[in-house]
Amino acid sequence: MTTVTMDKIVSLAKRRGFVYPSSEIYGGINACWDYGPLGVRLKNNVKRAWWRAMTQMRDDVEGLDAAILMHPRVWEASGHVENFTDPLVDCKVCKGRFRADQLDMVPCPDKPSKHPGEHHCELTEPRQFNMMFKTFMGPVEESANVIYMRPETAQGIYVNFHNVMTSSRQKVPFGIAQIGKAFRNEITPGNFIFRTREFEQMEMQFFVHPDESEKWFEHWKEQRSAWYDTIGIRKEKLRFHQHAEGELAHYAKAAFDIEYEFPFGWQELEGIHNRGDFDLGRHQEYSKKKLEYFDEVTRERYIPYIIETSAGCDRTLLTALIDAYREDVQAGEERDYLAFHPSLAPIKAAIFPLVKKEGMPEIAQKLTAELRSRFEVFYDEKGSIGKRYRRMDEVGTPFCVTIDTETLSNDSVTVRVRDTLEQERVNLSELRGFLEARIG
Ligand code: GAP
């Protein structure tokens, strides 16, 4: 049984080049993280898997990449200027600052075994704190020039509803998908990349007739929970959480979270919302531009309801790391490894010459060059074969291919499987097909 702790994940992520603290040489900056060579590959693989499922495999969802900076009226219409707030309390003794509704989730800085308010704390009354980052557009820093760093990607989709529909000749029901950065001045970020101030979202907004919103809501709940299975996240670690009446966001008619069991408890991974006609209705009101849909068959005119699926990219990556982490003992030696689904693995196959002589490096390099156009492969000739296997296990490489003495006589190679440690002989001419069948 592997016990996964955040310390193990953070340490592996740093050591093997997945995630580093941002601006580390200056002491870091709170709640900002940088993705290293393997992290950026893993993140791209998460995004690719999502984009494929949401757009490539469907006729009824189009893609979009809207600007981060938007007209300030967008955020008035969306309700973010008024409602995107969290209750903030300060402690007059330790000068700590906390979310009033999450005191039980953080330690007291002066006495970490207790929560804020339980020690010698003096907490202020809660006050509402808007989480949007502000900046100025143009050279003059005055209130008329304030704009916001978008706190969600969704609004870029709503304001482009008509553009996308007409240019792609879609009819309701249809959706728009987008992946992009979002920024939130979180009061209590934490748990590594779980809650940060700069992060990426993978959001899809599906426009439907109001009478069909419940049907589509169910459809998207099923689709989204099934997607986590396709990227290898264990089913028993996922569950739905339905938002109770008082929990619903200001725009939502109904909401379910897909939750994952993180080492720090069950937490939201993705939100699925029935947003009703709130978004297009508000943008129509604030922009004075018609955002209705006219159904040419029924001659009906209406503001579509929106079913939203909103997943965090960084949070999915964290989930993938935690879910894949395993420890076992092989031939008396401890090993930790990442049992990534092949679609997410940053390196799909490592190619090793057994020794640096007898022409083995040349064969291995030629093979690496041949496979490179199809898979993310990695060539390594340094150190013992055991150490090379271990290094690949730790970064989740599903297959290691070794060129050995037998290769020289019969053109076959050893393929070692990360999870089972089984070794199979495969002919060089069949290797590409062998890997394709297993990696996809
Ligand atoms: N458009 C709806 C929306 O933004 P949300 O529940 O606030 O809904 C959706 O965010 C998802 O974005 C969350 O489920 C989470 O995965 C991710 N997310 C939200 N805030 C985040 C943060 N501060 N850091 C990392 N991911 C975050």
TrEMBL record:
Catalytic reaction(s) noted: tRNA(Gly) + glycine + ATP = glycyl-tRNA(Gly) + AMP + diphosphate
Function: Catalyzes the attachment of glycine to tRNA(Gly).
Entry's localization field: Cytoplasm
Top-level taxon in the UniProt lineage: Bacteria
Pfam families in alphabetical order: HGTP_anticodon (PF03129), tRNA-synt_2b (PF00587)
Gene expressing this chain: glyQS
Binding residues annotated for ATP, in chain numbering: 184-186, 194-199, 268-269, 312-315
SUPFAM superfamilies noted in UniProt: Class II aaRS ABD-related, Class II aaRS and biotin synthetases
Name listed for the protein in its UniProt record: Glycine--tRNA ligase
Record keywords: Aminoacyl-tRNA synthetase, ATP-binding, Cytoplasm, Ligase, Nucleotide-binding, Protein biosynthesis
EC number: 6.1.1.14
Subunit structure, as described in the record: Homodimer.
